[in-house]
Write a structure and sequence with these properties.
The complex is a heterodimer.
Chain A: E1 2-3, H1 4-18, E2 22-26, H2 30-33, H3 36-41, E3 46-48, H4 53-65, E4 69-73, H5 76-82, H6 84-92, E5 99-102, H7 121-126, E6 132-134, H8 139-151, E7 156-159, E8 164-165, E9 180-183, E10 188-192, H9 196-207, E11 215-218, E12 221-223, H10 227-235, E13 239-247, H11 252-263, E14 268-273, H12 283-289, H13 294-305
Parallel strand pairs in A: 2-3, 2-4, 4-5, 5-7, 6-7, 10-11, 10-13, 13-14
Antiparallel strand pairs in A: 1-8, 6-12, 9-11
Helix pairs in contact in A: 1-8, 4-6, 9-13
Chain B: H1 3-24, H2 29-33, H3 36-44, E1 62-65, H4 71-81, H5 121-134, E2 141-146, H6 153-164, E3 170-176, E4 179-180, E5 183-184, H7 185-188, H8 194-200, E6 204-209, H9 213-223, E7 232-237, H10 260-275
Helix pairs in contact in B: 1-3, 1-4, 1-10, 3-4, 3-9, 5-6
Classes of the chains: A alpha/beta, B alpha/beta.
């Protein structure tokens, strides 16, 4: 088990060793976002800007203008919320080569509660033109995504989590923005992003008792949204579910529904945060509270299949 | 220093500013006119190292217009410097024009960053100065900020960072024209004691007349020679709408175009000024 933020810290360190173009920024959370690993080995290429996320994004923009590839990290709520307009106007509008790698996304931040639980960041980042929005599901995918983001020229938002996640994808997995069919089933398809791939996989184990075998598809790239591939997958199924540790407004569910409404209309059932703020609690208790754990996902499917 | 030549450039640039804003029927004349001598000093006073034929020259100095609404002064200065032809300037703010209402770095050469949303240019400048230093380049970074813009909290985040990172390759210039959209800065949201604020943030501070080449050019040239591990701010005292009598110190001309008739008066005033 390893949090995607930890895999990010390791991947960033590897990139730092690979290229002296890589610089990292943090806003006083380097121990939590794991940019501390990079900072320790490359202090001259690491900039802690203090508790000033808007300034961090501006400085990252300036570093990219000087020819570097900046990776800027803080919690998702502050990166996507506090610094939204800086990302929109200074980074995305001129399509600067800045990577915003935001940790502690979703409710599994846990005890810190609603003020620190970002359930809106996918929507906030996806609505900005020129942005690429990526959500790794496990440590393996995180490393592949970070390497991809380094090679890609342009602004990228990467959504990372605090909670430990097992390795799910094959060791030789290589991220390519397309949906990844994790498990082939029948009749029902679940599109999942981030930590929900893991939770859906657990739910599918529980659903075996009901003779239900959904297809499980990992969606690591929320923007550009892989519309064509999603429709192709949906065509082979009768029911569509989406699962995300994010508001059902503006996230994966909205994007799947929007995609289908335009070229293959059918009902979509959303598993996610239903227009609510988070709350304090242990990560696993919160997943259960919001119906995002294995039992909650199972029940949601059973309710809709009836 | 050929003061006459600088004044000739300033006159040309003021003329272009009035022309393009009149043609667009919208834009920001006041804060463009107040910054003319500052930009002329940078681009024609031998301060900035730049090459209009090679806008991405790595060793160039960088100029960031944080007060992006003063786009007309930047466009006309870059045109005067040879980055592009003056003939397109009359398309300012029109559909499909590269001369956007606020500067778009993707649409024109010589524009170092897309600005317009106030308060962000100093952060960009800090990042760029850090990057240039990391690369071992001797290039200097200049940022021009409006005084009203200093009301944005992010400016002071950047001010702290510039001091923390000991950026002596960074100079901020404040266009201190005392006016913002809703009135005098001191009435809307007081900035004074402004020099003390910057000093307390760990910056070296220089105050001068922002319309006097004999003061601006030497100050900017000296600014490039620092190695005192401190950022420098130059508070340039200016007159909003400078050079056009009916615009000077008039708040309304922050973001209003002159009429065709007013433009004619403005041109004649610029000409008279030149003859004096």
């Amino acid at each position: 088990m390893k949090a995607t933020r930890e895999a990010y810290g390791e991947a960033l360190l590897d990139l730092g060793r690979l290229s002296d173009q890589v610089v990292a920024l943090d806003a006083d959370l380097s121990k939590s976002t794991k940019t501390s690993l990079f900072a320790k080995e490359f202090p001259e290429r690491f900039f802690d800007v203090g508790i000033a996320e808007q300034n961090m994004i501006g400085i990252a923009a300036g570093l990219s203008l000087a020819g570097f590839v900046p990776f800027a990290s803080t919690f998702a709520i502050f990166a996507s919320g506090r610094a939204w307009e800086q990302i929109r106007n200074t980074v995305a509008y001129p399509s600067l080569n800045v990577k915003v790698c935001a940790s502690h996304a979703g409710i599994t931040v846990g005890e810190d509660g609603a003020s620190h639980q970002s359930v809106e960041d996918i929507g906030l980042m996806s609505i900005i033109p020129n942005m690429t929005v990526l959500v790794p599901s496990d440590p393996i995918e995180t490393k592949s995504i970070i390497n991809w983001a380094f090679k890609y020229k342009g602004p990228v938002y990467v959504r990372l989590g605090r909670m430990g996640v097992p390795d799910l994808l094959p060791k030789d997995y290589s991220f390519d923005t397309k949906p990844y069919i994790f498990k082939k089933g029948k009749k029902i398809v679940i599109f999942a992003t981030g930590i929900m791939l893991w939770k859906c996989l657990e739910a599918i184990e529980l659903l075996k008792a009901y003779d239900i075998e959904p297809t499980l598809v990992n969606i690591p790239c929320l923007k550009p949204f892989p519309e064509k591939e999603i429709i192709e997958i949906v065509r082979e199924h009768d029911m569509v579910f989406t699962a995300e540790e994010h508001s059902i407004i503006g996230g994966l569910g909205s994007m799947v529904a929007s995609t289908l409404s335009r070229s293959y209309p059918m009902k979509v059932s959303f598993i996610g945060i239903n227009d609510k703020f988070g709350t304090s609690g242990k990560p696993n208790d919160l997943l259960s509270f919001y119906g995002l754990d294995a039992a909650g996902i199972r029940d949601k499917l059973l309710d809709n299949i009836k | 220093m050929d003061d006459l030549l600088l004044r000739e450039h300033a006159k040309n640039i003021r003329h272009l500013i009035i022309e393009m804003i009149t043609s667009a029927k919208s834009g920001h004349p006041g804060g463009s006119l107040s910054a003319v001598e500052i930009l002329v000093s940078l681009y024609f006073g031998g301060v900035l190292n730049y090459d209009p034929k090679n806008p991405s020259l790595e060793s160039r100095d960088r100029f960031f217009l944080s007060k992006g609404h003063a786009a007309p002064v930047l466009y006309s200065t870059l045109a005067e410097a040879g980055y592009f032809d003056k003939s397109g300037l009359d398309t300012l703010r029109q559909l499909n024009s590269p001369f956007q209402g606020h500067p778009d770095m993707k649409k024109l050469p010589g524009i170092e960053a897309s600005t317009g949303s106030l308060g962000q240019g100093l952060s960009i400048s800090v990042g760029c100065a850090l990057g240039l230093r990391l690369k071992g380049l001797k290039s200097h970074v200049f940022a021009l900020l409006g005084d009203g813009e200093l009301e944005e909290g992010q400016v002071w985040e950047a001010a702290m960072a510039a001091r923390q990172f000991k950026l002596d390759n960074l100079t901020a210039i404040i266009d201190r024209n005392n006016l913002q959209i809703d009135g005098f800065t001191e009435e809307v949201m007081s900035l004074e004691p402004l020099a003390d604020k910057w000093r307390s943030f760990g910056w070296s501070v220089l105050e001068l007349s922002g319309h006097d080449f004999d003061q601006i050019v030497p100050a900017l040239l000296n600014a490039k020679k620092r190695d005192d591990k401190k950022p420098l701010v130059i508070i340039a005292h200016t007159i909003k709408g400078k050079g056009v009598s009916f615009m000077e110190n008039i708040c309304d001309f922050h973001g209003k175009a002159p009429s065709e008739d007013q433009a004619k008066i403005a041109y004649s005033e610029l000409k008279e000024c030149d003859e004096q």
